[in-house]
Amino acid sequence: MYTFSNKLRNLAFAFMAIGLAGLVYGFLSAPKTVEDAKAMVATEHHEGGHGEEHADEAHAEESTHDAHQTEDHSAEAAHGEEHDASHDEHLLHQLQNKPWAALYVAAFFFFMIALGTLAFYAIQRAAQAGWSPVLYRVMEGITAYLLPGGIIVIAILAMSGFHMNHLFIWMDPEVVAHDKLIAGKVAFLNVPFFLGRAVFFLAGWTAYRFISRKFSLAQDEASDNSNHVKNFRLSAGFLVFFIVTESIMSWDWIMSIDPHWFSTLFGWYVFASMFVSGITAIALITIYLKSKGLLEFVNDSHIHDLGKFMFGVSVFWTYLWFSQFMLIWYSNIPEEVTYFITRIEDYNITFFGMIAMNFLFPLLILMNSDYKRTNYFIIMAGIVIILGHYLDVFNMIMPSAVGDQWFIGIPEIGGFFFFLGLFIYIVFTALTKAPLLAKGDPYMGESERFHY
Amino acid sequence: MSNQVIHALYDDDDTLLSAVKEVRAKKHHIEEIYTPFPVHGLDKAMGLEETRIAIMAFIYGCIGFGVAVAMINFIMIEDWPQNIGGKPSFSFLENMPAFVPVMFEMTVFFAAHLMVITFYLRSRLWPFKEAENPNPLTTDDMFLMEIELKNNEKELTALLKETGAVEITVPENTEE
Q1: Which among A15, A18, A88, A105 has most CB atoms closer than 10 A?
Q2: CATH code that applies to domain B4-36+141-169
Q3: Min Cα–Cα distance to chain A from B28, Å
């Protein structure tokens, strides 16, 4: 049995406290009025290098246009004022969204780790894998975060539904009234159906997790394999349910933030991201527990296999990312390509930095077979992959929520730390609830002898 | 090349593996083992050097990537620039996404083909080469272990019998 060390528990609480402070700061410093918002952006422009660069660009553009525009200047002045007002309103919404988006990105990211791990676990069960049963209890520990994490995400979605924030602009009837494209999607994108779906998905995933865990624990003491067989059937069924609901979830919770834009492989793309994050979390937690002298039955070959999965799914993620990017880039259809133009122009560092972290780094570091057996390399690659996929979610949500007003500042880092702390607390509490070896599993012998 | 050898035939890969370990523990030199299929863990049991083909694969892949970049740059940018989908190809970097599939395929192509060719060269295999395996049964269902003899035929025969060999022969030395 694992006991949650005080040191780790205190660390989790410290993360939560720091994170909560950061989030609260983010909410308190959000502007209340248009004037506040304008003042905030103005001071930022004077201080930050980022802002200045931006201003310079705009200035250069202006001067080239000056020659043409002097004639009808007076006519445009009136139009400009009106335009400015709506622009300021927009700016206010973006700045008000900022702490909400920081909260949502982090909440979704850690929820996604639990969901990805659940999918990985179900695949091991359905495939009756022989190598992985020694890791079942670690996976079950991670998926314990699914329900609390999911409830938090759905709570944030519900708060959007009650107009406490403007993350999802299609929830605003004013916007829908003036937008033909969104109006055409109202049958699917309406608050009650949206929240109903969310609750249904989470209920389905949680039910699988709950029942499968029960079979898994019952198998420990059982004299026959009936629990194992039931778990196998349940997992195979769950995977069908999962891939459909996961796709719809990704449209709902992420893609609909950009209600005009759509991509047909978005569900796969989000899945690849959650899958690799989940596998990485399994590897990191396994190595942590091993370093504490637990999980003595997990050997280098198990770590090696997790490393292969981290490597392989990182490449798979890149394949999907690139497929989505290249088709849209090449066809250059205005309503599609805006998605990437915003990301390349306003999010250049995070957009391309993410490719380096999620593709180049794991590709080069995990290519060597010996490195995948070395805990140090797995941890290093794992931390970069986890941060890289946080940035991936960041890039999916932020551009539509806050536009070019993004920054990885106190609320964003605070959000990450708050949910990291919560994740550690819930996962390691769940690990104490059952023996770390699922000793009744019929494949346990094969898994323990597993070697490469 | 006047060394004499002894041949031991096995009919099971697990027996073979444990036999290899025993023979090596007794400090006999295993010249070669012929098997009908790759036996997992045999290289380690025989104490063979680790393969370096992975390093070559990486190098070949890099060469393929380089060739692809040079090739596609010449074809699409320098020699015959075209305007495809409103993207005039005057700059390699700006058109790079369109070239990624080519780079990927060439990397894989070079790595795969050159690896196979390297493997053939290192194993001294070429078309119409005569088979080296002393017993045709090793292409069917038998495993053959070849051990160097140093006037210890009796001792080795006893040892090999013990390890589960189904047939032990000392072929006449026909070379020279």
Answers
A1: A105
A2: 3.30.70.120
A3: 26
